[in-house]
Specification:
Immunoglobulin-like, six-stranded antiparallel sheet
Length: about 600
């Protein structure tokens, strides 16, 4: 722990480029960073006496790692973390010849030095199970009680937060596995019923949950050093594994046991799933969180999978091979399911995720938040699920959420494709010039790819194309889209036959009808004048792209015709009990307008 206090406003103490737990009202600069020169002493000595003063030994590290590497650089750094052991201070000092004199000539005796009694204030740190059978994938749609589930996606906070009242009032957001001892409410330990009320009131259809980036809020400083003590700071972002009560992890608390579940974490997920089910909402359970193993080194140092943090003997290198003394490239080792030490732990953890939520019909299992991992690990994840399903006879909803190349490879496999219920488009998208699709297993995070590959512009047509390609090839699987510029293309998702569209309509009859509709492809829709979904027995929905009248081909019968405001979801009547004999001209057509043609 570093203490830096200023006596008063006119006498300021400062600390520059320090690493550690920082306490005090001094001026802090360059924290958790490297500075030049590496040694202030030898730099000043050389300036004073010239080159003859450059006789010291300074451990210089490479500090040039970029947060936006090229694919080639990321691959090279990932391999270096596998093949090149990190040099420790002990290794380095042992390699340096000892040349200093140990002669006592000219030195004062300690007994001859007068002591000075310093009075001052102590500089201590301030430490402040219910099965819901109403959820289904039917007709390639995700439904609740026969109605299409619609709404936005809620993503939990990853790591930030405060326990002060003013933060909770102004900026706190719900997080179901965040824990603040003795405090209950949004921003602290959330009340599950309050979270569900918040989601319902703000138009959310699902909560996307994963374990915390780190447990202890002290790591908010992005330091990589071992903590001096276990005086952790709330809020705590819980991990899915329990602490064993033995040893000492990097954060000062006891070690994790990767084979045993954190009962509080999983009970919170189950409690939310059960409460959300009553409102027709879903829980997305991300098994992993890739942010821990790529990018900033601070994301990895407290991670349960790091060998110094668990009792399970994980095989990751120690000391951590930080690239540029700051970045971490641990994906190559983490996704190595052939590693004899890691494989049983990965299998056990995947099964843990399935076991803990097996009784919650609205729980969807996904491989990882921010996932750009390799195809072989994605296959391994699905193979483990398939074995569990065969053993238990249970079939939870499984979403395939990965890069497009891995996604297409999995879907082309007749066996693994059977495990997939939902095709989740999240890490690629079409743009106005083509396709933005990072490759799998290149040791770069999605946002790093975005810095190296032009994301491009997207619109309704691009979102529609992505969803429609999969709904046409896999009509029995649900297709969701949470990619670039989500959630503004909810209507494109709906009209392409997709699931979980973020549309504001809450009319129960409408949602029940569209759950049964399929995409209508004909000469008129091919012209681009409109998109259409429908069923000859219940009606149609039309999304117009033109101000010109639309000539629609529909089944013979009587219809009510409505216009839907695509922004507010309000529905107004256009015509009632209209008899139609095979075709109907929609004369009031307007571009970007939605029409519901309800058969009666």
């Amino acid at each position: 722990t570093l203490y830096c206090y200023s006596p008063d406003k006119d006498n300021r103490s400062s600390a520059n480029a320090c690493w550690g737990t920082m306490t005090g009202n001094g001026e802090w600069s360059g924290s958790n960073d490297a500075v030049t020169p590496r040694s202030l002493f030898y730099d000043q000595l050389q300036k004073r006496v010239g080159d003859k003063g450059n006789n010291g030994y300074v451990y210089n590290r490479n500090i040039t790692a970029s947060s936006s590497p090229t694919i080639e650089v990321a691959q090279r750094l990932a391999m270096e973390s596998v093949t090149t052991p990190r040099v420790t201070i002990e290794m380095w000092t042992d390699s340096i010849p000892y040349t200093a004199s140990i002669s006592a000539n000219g030195l004062k005796n300690i007994n001859d030095i007068k002591s000075t009694n310093t009075h001052g204030k102590s500089l201590k740190g301030s430490d402040e199970k219910t099965v819901n059978k109403a959820f289904a994938i039917s007709n390639g749609k995700m439904t609740y009680d026969g109605r299409l589930i619609v709404g936005n996606r809620y993503a939990i906070p990853w790591w930030n937060g405060r326990t002060k009242d003013n933060f909770v009032v102004k900026g706190a957001k719900p997080a179901i596995t965040r824990f603040v001892p003795g405090r209950e409410g949004t921003g602290w330990t959330d009340r599950i019923d309050s979270v569900v009320t918040f989601l319902k009131g703000n138009g959310y259809a699902m909560l996307d949950n994963h374990y915390g980036l780190w447990y202890d809020l002290r790591r908010i400083d992005h330091e990589r050093v071992k903590r001096a003590d276990g005086d952790v700071s709330a809020p705590f972002y819980e991990q899915p594994f329990t602490r064993c009560g033995k040893g000492r992890a990097w954060d000062g608390l006891s070690l994790y046991d990767l084979t045993k579940p954190n009962l509080w974490y999983w009970q919170r997920e189950r409690d939310f799933a059960q409460a959300a089910a009553k409102e027709g909402m879903l829980l997305f359970n991300q098994n992993y969180f890739q942010h821990n193993i790529i990018e900033a080194g601070a994301h990895w140092v407290d991670a349960p999978w790091r060998p110094v943090n668990n009792v399970n003997g994980t095989s990751f290198p120690e000391p951590v091979p930080f690239a540029g003394d700051k970045r971490v490239f641990m994906a190559e080792q983490f996704y190595n399911e052939q590693d004899p030490a890691l494989r049983p732990l990965h299998e056990g953890y995947i099964r843990m995720c399935l076991d803990q939520l097996k009784d919650n019909g609205n729980a969807v299992q996904l491989i990882s938040e921010e996932y750009t991992g390799p195809l072989h690990f994605t296959r391994f994840w699905l193979e483990t699920i398939a074995k569990w399903e065969k053993e238990t006879g249970r079939h939870p909803m499984i979403a395939l959420s990965c890069t497009k190349d891995a996604q297409d490879s999995i879907l082309a496999d007749p066996q693994l494709s059977k495990v997939v219920d939902i095709i989740d488009i999240r890490y690629w998208h079409y743009n106005t010039t083509g396709l933005w699709a990072p490759p799998a297993g290149k040791n770069m995070a999605p946002r790093q790819f975005m810095r190296k590959m032009k994301v491009g512009k997207t619109g309704y047509k691009e979102a529609y194309r992505a969803v429609r390609e999969y709904t046409s090839m896999f009509p029995d699987k649900a297709v969701t889209l949470f990619a670039q510029q989500y959630p503004q293309y909810g209507w494109a998702i709906l009209m392409a036959g997709g699931s979980l569209p973020n549309i504001p309509v809450d009319d129960q009859k409408f949602l029940s009808d569209v759950a049964k509709m399929k995409v209508v492809d004909n000469n008129q829709t091919a012209s681009g004048a409109y998109d259409m979904i429908g069923d000859d027995g219940i009606g149609y929905v039309v999304y117009s792209h033109t101000d010109k009248p639309l000539c629609l081909t529909v089944s013979t019968g009587r219809y009510n015709i409505f216009c839907i405001d695509k922004t507010s979801g309000s529905i107004r009547s256009v015509a009632k009990k209209t008899a139609i004999n095979g075709s109907y001209t929609l004369t009031e057509s307007k571009a970007e307008q939605v029409y519901w043609i309800e058969k009666i």
